[in-house]
Write a structure and sequence with these properties.
single chain, about 120 residues, mainly alpha, 3 helices, about 80% helix, elongated
């Protein structure tokens, strides 16, 4: 899993950068002001919130949790504290949750285009 994660890391961050770049373009295309969120459609605000959560989760998993898991992996399983075991367990769930959130972003994008 680690080698696959490292291989696709650039693709994941590229996709997130693409999301962040296309948001203002979408607003401009719909003649909405980027500085006036009150005029944004609800689905766009939901999509923006999901992108924010996705960004935070990906950042936390990739840059913070990943380095901790590497350190913890060097420790024998029976010598790990309960906190370290929780970090290792949650590290496998973070990408799954991120995938669900990314699908939510995609669904919000489809609804936004159709509206």
């Amino acid at each position: 899993f680690r080698s696959a994660a490292l291989r696709f890391r650039l693709i994941v961050w590229g996709a997130i950068a693409l999301l962040l770049l296309t948001g203002p373009l979408l607003l401009h295309q719909r003649s909405l002001s980027i500085v006036d969120p009150s005029g944004w459609p609800l689905i766009f605000r939901i999509k923006l919130g999901l992108v924010g959560v996705l960004l935070l989760l990906t950042f936390a998993h990739d840059l913070l949790q990943g380095s901790q898991v590497r350190k913890i992996s060097a420790i024998r399983e029976d010598a790990r504290s309960s906190w370290e075991q929780a970090i290792v367990r949650s590290s496998s769930w973070a990408p799954r949750v991120a995938l669900l959130i990314a699908l939510g972003v995609l669904l919000a994008a489809v609804v936004l285009v159709r509206s």
